Amino acid sequence: MRAIEVRRIIDPLPIYTMWLREMKRFFRVKARVVGSLLMPIFFLAFMGLPMSFMPAREIPGLEGIGYLDFLAPGIVGMTLLFAGTMSGASVIWDKEFGFLKEVLVAPVSRFSVILGRSLGGMTTAIIQALIIVGIAVAMGVQLSSVSGFFLAILIMIFTCATFTGFGLIIATKLGNLEGFMAIMNLIIFPIFLLSGALFPIQSMPSWLRYIMYIDPLTYGVDGLRSTLIGISAFPLWLDFTVLITLCLALATLGSYFFSRMEAD
Amino acid sequence: MNSIIEIENLTKEFDGLVAVDHITLNVAEGEIFGFLGPNGAGKTTAVKMLCTILNPTSGSAKVCGYDIVRQRNKVRECIGIVFQDRAIDTFLTGRENLDFHARMYHLDGRTRQKRVAEVLDLMDLRGKENMRISECSGGTQRRFEVARGFLNHPKVLFLDEPTLGLDAQARRNLWDYIKLLNEKGGITIILTTHYMEEADYLCHRLAIIDQGCIVAMGTPEKLKLAVGLNLISIQIAQDSSGSPVDSLKQLSWIKRIETRDGWLELSIDGGEERIPELIDFADDRGLVISSIKLYKPSLEDTFLHYTGKTIREVEGSTKELWKAWMRSRGRR
Question: Phi-psi category of A160—alpha, beta or left, where left has phi over 0 and alpha has psi -120 to 50?
Answer without folding.
Answer: alpha
